[in-house]
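WARN retry 2 of 3 for item q-0093 after timeout on previous attempt; input resubmitted unchanged.
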Amino acid sequence: MSVSTEVDGPRAGDATAATSTAGTTRSAAPASAPRGAAVLEPGLDRPVGLVGARLWAAAAALLLVVGAGTGWALFGTLPHTLALPALLAHGKAPQTVRADRAGALLAYRVGPGQLVTRGQPLAVLRTTDGTEVTVPAPEDGTVTSLLSAPGAELAPGAAVASLDAGEQPRTVRLFATTLKQAGQLAPGRTVLVPVPGKGVVRATITAVDPLPARADSLDGSFSVPLPGLPAGEAPVWTAYALLPDAESPSAGPVPLTVSVDLGARHPYQAVFGTGAKR
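OK item q-0093 returned
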């Protein structure tokens, strides 16, 4: 009788197979991606490169704009003008019409701004012997002001009226109200004059009064108010520019605002208020 001594358990062949399988599993494990690791898909870095290129292009454009602006500010030019009140009239000053004999001023026959012709009566006087005589206009022109009052007793040579004489050359009288403005007026400078019905006309300064006059001494020079002109004892410097005859209207005194051409200056000078570049 034979007795079996085989013990229940894994067979040797099974153990060998299990060992082989485990080894295969252990050797394959390192090839797998670790858990939780980020995987970058191909092509995802392209947007980053594109944004970087655009930033460089924007920076280059900004530098170009800044450089161009700086160059223009330093080397570019802008027109530089000085605006002044002015009067378009005939001659350097109105002509004063005076009484040629003593008498009482009875009445005026004209008023400021009125056009008159040579010999036309401007006023009526009663002389000391009771005779009534007229004060005639010495030439064609425009009455700018009446310099007396009815009832006043006038001596020979007393001022009766002022007249913008039409036979005198057309002149632009420029009025500077500060010493700085006066220092910028010089013979030869160009003046841009807005002539009614003609547009902007270029005139040239021919003379400048060396000393200022009191503003109230100019009374009688204008038949209409002149904006921008001070009053009272304020100093006023006067310059004169001749207007080409072809561009000269025949009307009487016309108040204007003119522009004196001071040349050109760089943009940075305009910002800081410095002088002109000739």
